[in-house]
Amino acid sequence: MQQITLAEASQHLPELIEAAINGEEIVITKDEQPVVKLTPVSPVKRRPAKAGSAKGLVTISDDFDEPLEDFKDYM
Length: 75
Hints:
Elements: E1 2-5, H1 6-11, H2 13-21, E2 26-30, E3 33-38
Parallel strand pairs: 1-2
Antiparallel strand pairs: 2-3
């Protein structure tokens, strides 16, 4: 585990990020107290959308396109 001060971290941020991505644990300290740990974010794996995959999940009522009762005065 590598500990580095906030001032040093701001000067070497790209190198610290690369080290964290490569598995090194980086702890940034302020006033000699640990305040931040750099850890890589795992990429989100998404499956491509498949046509018809939501079939049966969405329904539209029979009167969907009928005028609303509240707006009859305006028609």
